[in-house]
Amino acid sequence: MLYFAYGSNLHHFQMKRRCKDSIFLKKINLKDFKLSFRSKYRAADVEPKKNSIVPGGLYKISKSDEKKLDVYEDFPNLYKKYFFYYYGKKVMTYTMVKKSIFKYPTERYLNIVKRGYKDCNLDYSYLKKALRL
Fold first, then answer.
1. How do residues 76-118 score in pLDDT, each as one tens digit?
2. Could you tell me the end-to-end alpha-carbon distance of the chain, in angstroms, rounded to an integer?
3. How far apart are CA 27 and CA 73, in angstroms?
4. CATH code for the domain of 64
5. Is the bond into 105 cis (omega within 30 degrees of 0)?
6. In the chain, which end has fewer C-beta atoms inside a 10 angstrom radius, N or C?
């Protein structure tokens, strides 16, 4: 299965620890969405926004990896699954169930996301934009 990461799961070491079968394929963009941070966890989320993109990492994951991600993402309470197609292939990602107001992420979490942006060679300007109030 293909999985799109846009938050802390961009961090290659953390993702490998969490999902042992995961293989990072390449960076891709989720179109017509924007990145935000919210909930009591101050975690990353994506929300629909025309003509906007969220850069992220495309991973190949196993069924057991998906089950581990479901637990980590507190599916279906905090996050629900969202599916989209990338060049005809179905890709799964998570999006928050409740779209609460923007909450600036903790320094620890943000550092993991920043490292992930480096690991996946993503354009840092999108993360900076998401952090602006």
1. 999 999 999 999 999 999 999 999 999 999 999 999 999 999 9
2. 35
3. 21
4. 3.10.490.10
5. no
6. C
**Structural domain boundaries enclosing 98:** 2-131
Contacts of 60 (CB under 8 A, 6+ apart): 1, 2, 3, 22, 23, 25
Helix or strand run (H / E) with residue 98: none
Q: Tens of pLDDT along 6-23?
A: 999 999 999 999 999 999
Specify the number of domains making up the chain. Answer: 1
CA distance 95 to 90: 16
- 56 by Cβ neighbours in 10 Å (0-12 / 13-18 / 19+) ranks as buried
Tokens of 128: 């900076």
**132 secondary structure, DSSP code:** -
Joined together, the tokens standing for residue 51 give 């003509």
